[in-house]
Amino acid sequence: MSIKKGIRLIAIGFIFTLINLNIKFNTQAINVMPDFIGWFIIAFAFSYLDGFKKGSGWLKWGSILLGLISAGLMIAEYVLPKYDLTLYKSGASLLEAIIIFSLLTLLEKIGRAYGSNCVGDLKILKYVYLIVYIIFQALSLCVNFLPIDLFAALVKICGVITLLTAIITMLVLLRFSSTLNIEEN
After folding, report:
1. pTM of the full predicted structure?
2. 139 CB-contact burial (10 Å; exposed 0-12 / middle 13-18 / buried 19+)
3. Mind giving me the DSSP string for 134-160?
């Protein structure tokens, strides 16, 4: 099995987990790139990370759990539109941040083991993602509990920064997989 294929699958999974593409129908928005698909792809990618499974099994199960939570929240939004799911989403988002940070740490380890020149980029992205996540979550909570237009504007700006971070992360992961010094089977 190919570690490079696993990393490419993780990059594809990141596309789904980090980018929300919503299409509005009447009053409902439908996410055409639901997070749960990305988390299940990431969980599947672990079957290709031979030699790096030890100590990272919780990431696979965490990804599956996030996929299930994400699917449940998506269904709840449509079935129970009057419920405020903000705190549930924030909890899931916290778990997501922990998983992504840990996953990028694991990829750094793989990169060091196989001589990738992208290890530094992964390390920087890991911390940038964490900082953007914290700011975005803090602003989102402020918007929900302190409805001030400035917070709403800042959340939109932070959303764009999050999108750019997601795109850069995906591109770095795709480049990362090609810089590993691994013989393909």
Report:
1. 0.83
2. buried
3. HHHHHHHHHHHHS--HHHHHHHHHHHH
